[in-house]
Amino acid sequence: MSPTVVNARNAQRRPAPSRRRDRRMWIGIALVLAGMAGLAAQAIVPPSELARKGIRTFGEVLLKDSKPADDGTFTYTVTFVFADATQRNHQVTRVILDKARWDRLKTRQEVRVVYLPGAPDQASIEGAEGLARPRSGAYAYLSWSAILLGAVLIAVAVRSASATPPPDTGHIPHADQGAPAP
Fold first, then answer.
1. DSSP per-residue letters across 138-175
2. Cα–Cα distance between 40 and 45 in angstroms, integer?
3. Which residue in 18, 62, 89, 153 has its CB near the most CB atoms, within 10 A?
4. Is residue 66 domain-shared with residue 125, that is, in the same domain?
5. 84 and 111 share one domain
């Protein structure tokens, strides 16, 4: 049976401080490891062929559009034009995965374009499908949040372990024991 501390005021049982410290420490370690695994998994996932072998150039945003999707969200698209290495123009429409990125784009704005020489109509821009890893920003945010929360829990557990605990007399005073005898 684990040691418990009885709160005399409301007679509730709660785990002893050392058990709480241990629990915080293990949860903190688990969160840090989970966050590190998330970052490692994100780094291991290979980039698309377009990101690895694509040629980079500049293009111009022609049109932005948003359409309601079946699930109640919106699909954000951008149409851009660019000239390939042979100075031939190509017009491409791509889905933008991040609404904030889509909001920052303006018509007639210059953008960096990446395309494959053998398939220029499969070009993409930063933050659009084909070039970005899906939800990579969300995974990075969750991973770093887990690492930070885990580090805070570990620090709290270490700090409470280094604090001097009050002496344990093993005696729990009752309401009638503290009064002097008549």
1. HHHHHHHHHHHHHHHHHHHHHHHHHSPPPP--S----T
2. 9
3. 153
4. yes
5. yes
β-pairing verdict for 74-83 and 89-96: antiparallel
Q: Which two tokens stand for residue 129?
A: 């499908």
Looking at the structure, do residues 56 and 40 belong to the same domain, yes or no?
no
128-168 pLDDT, tens digit each: 877 666 567 778 888 999 999 999 999 988 888 776 555 66
- In this structure, the answer to whether residues 35 and 86 fall within a common structural domain is no
**What is the Cα–Cα distance from 26 to 22, expressed in whole angstroms?**
6
- Between CA 30 and CA 118 the distance in angstroms is 46
- What confidence tier does 27 reach under pLDDT thresholds 50, 70, 90? very high
Number of domains in the chain: 2
- The C-alpha angle 127, 38, 25, rounded to 5 degrees, equals 140
